[in-house]
């Protein structure tokens, strides 16, 4: 009888698993179908149905591509970097001068609109922004390969003593600084591994365990604000901060590093209030591998030279993109990094950024962004509402989708708004509007899916969504308010 019940239970268990698997598969298929169907409906509908005046054919197609990118980046029926590749392909086929022949039979007709040069679209793969990210990736990969990241972290934490609150501040400070010059995802992964011996020193019932885990993604998300290469939204914004609106690497740091450190300090106080550690003392012990002295000297020297050149760009005249090539050239020529190490580069991030740049190019070159702005009565809105609406929109959307994808969607439109709305010059103009929106996007950190650092911390199993939400909502709102205060002060002082 027992064997009979056991067999029946196993049969029901397998049957339930099959039903659950089929249900998930059907839901995924339905989501993919909807994500494809909605953009196709936008493409198929007559232009007269779209509430925008005087749309050209290429602008209508740009709306289709924009809708496709937005839905696929938000719903993620396929990886978000794959969506970026499809966006570039669609632009080449539908909007370029080397696109599908049938698509351009009437390109000379009145109302067809502007056609993009295919070289400009493909050139987004080699945009200066991509080179900037590659330089940061090379620094991170080299430090990780030779275990120098752990060695530096151990050296930096030691001065903070043994009291849990100060050790937490030390870990947050190191994470924030690393996130300024390398991927905040890589910085989080590194610091979470260093956090293991710290958590081992805490009692299992100590609330401080939650606080320590939360402190790492918080510091990583905020630390990335400090430099133009700290987060993809920063880099995307730099694409539009050119000409009269240009901001140098050093000016960005002079403005944003103090802001990031102050905001991180506020986050530290919040975590100590919500999750105070009860353990009295932490004894840290790190195990480091034997280091390659030659590689260590090369990496430390190159890192110092690269950062020094980034900080002094106003003296030597080289921009941050050119400087980013230095670690790439040095590490490859001196064989600190080999061809196998190149596989560890986050190519998915580079492709995602490329897709965003290409989407911005399409919105701008077809004139769609200008048409959208011209059809919105910004002139009837107060300047304060425009600034607040742009920042809050970025803050909310970026909690539910990639920060990079949010920046890809919003910043090109914000850039056009900044050049068309009168009166913005009194508040810093397009530059301040772009910066406030960009920094608000980087402050979105309320859910596990909001940022990779959040997802990494959530994967430890030591925190729950409610922990991230409580911290993220508060820091997002307070941080956005402080962004406006910081930009007001820097504008008043003439720094930007």
TrEMBL record:
GO MF, one annotated term: phosphate transmembrane transporter activity
InterPro entries given in the database record: SLC13A/DASS (IPR001898)
GO cellular component terms, A-Z: plasma membrane
Location relative to the cell: Membrane
A Pfam family of this chain: Na_sulph_symp
Membrane topology: Multi-pass membrane protein
Keyword Thylakoid tagged: no
The UniProt record lists the keyword Magnesium: no
Transmembrane segments: 21-45, 57-74, 81-105, 125-143, 164-181, 187-203, 210-229, 249-275, 295-312, 318-337, 349-372, 378-397, 409-427, 468-488
Keywords, sorted A to Z: Membrane, Transmembrane, Transmembrane helix
Main location: membrane
NCBIfam families: dass (TIGR00785)
Protein name (record): SLC13/DASS family transporter
